[in-house]
Amino acid sequence: MGKGFYLTLMLGPGVPVPASQSMLDALQSVQVTVASGRRSGFSLTFSLSNNSPLHTLFLLGGGATIPIFRVVIIVTVNGNSDVLMDGVVLNTRVAPGNDPGHSTLTVMGEDLSAVMDLLDLDGLPYPAMPAEAAVALILIKYAFLGVLPLVIPSILIDVPIPVNRIPQQQGTDFKYVKHLADRVGYVFYIEPGPKPMMNIAYWGPEIRVGVPQKALNINMDAHTNVEQLSFTYNGDNATLPVVVVQNQETRAPIPIPIPPITPLSPPLGLVPPIPKRISMISGTAGLNPIQAVMIGLAKAAKTADVVDGQGTINVVRYGRPLKARQLVGVRGAGTAFDGLYYVKSVTHNIKRGEYKQSFNLVRNALVSNTPRVPA
What we know:
Phage tail protein beta-alpha-beta fold, about 15% helix, Phage tail proteins - horseshoe like beta roll fold, 13-stranded mixed sheet, Thrombin, subunit H, mainly beta, about 40% strand, three-stranded mixed sheet
């Protein structure tokens, strides 16, 4: 579709196959959004004649849950391939085109976690199983879609004794797995790759450490690889979460303030904000102190993000797609804003001959705490 990158599109009911040339010719644009804290989504826009059989194909795919109409989007930049999306079609929209006899067909969907939200399985028992085992058992059902579970055990492993309590599922698989993650301050999402039709279902803590991606450079002349980048400092939003637990003997409430810094979410700057508000976290009175603190730490990490960056890049110039849920370095933005950031979300916008990304960066402090970032 353009020098320096090309797009591979696979689709079909159940097992996707490479799209035909006529379908690729009709493809006008692709958009994929990946964000921390919510499902990934995609949209495909086609320009078709009103008599095209593709109308019927996509309308049936978007209106039926069985068979699953699956879409895999792969992009290759400078010889390196990345799976941007492995998902299912949820709905379609048809609008009149710019010329008579043609219309615009937009196909929209979400990642494979949408399949986990189709059936309500209220009351399904999981006897003598900690949350980790229940999550693994639920996820293994989706192995036929290429979903591989990556379950990180919690320090709050609790094996219920069947004669006392048998945990039962509430709602769909997706809602129950998310509920179990929220109970211990974890996150859950499905990430496509590393190969087509392979997916990693991650259930564990949100990790803000690791090897940073290639730096985003601004105001650096020939080394500039960012089209636009701006930052906002929201120091007034800094909040100190407080969880309240009960003394088991006296039933007296015990407030526990939660710091926003954890080993998995360390400070990314030298000057963290001073919290100006206190936020009481509800629903922790019946938990033991460790459980309450774990939930509080997860919420504290989210409220600590006081630096927000918004920008766009030309992916071919940058050299690779920027990935969400990872770290990235920033150079040339000034003393206060240079350094490492957590990539909260990215949106891929692909058109014929053009591949751009918009992104959202967050950080929990000002002034870089690293002398240099990977170029």
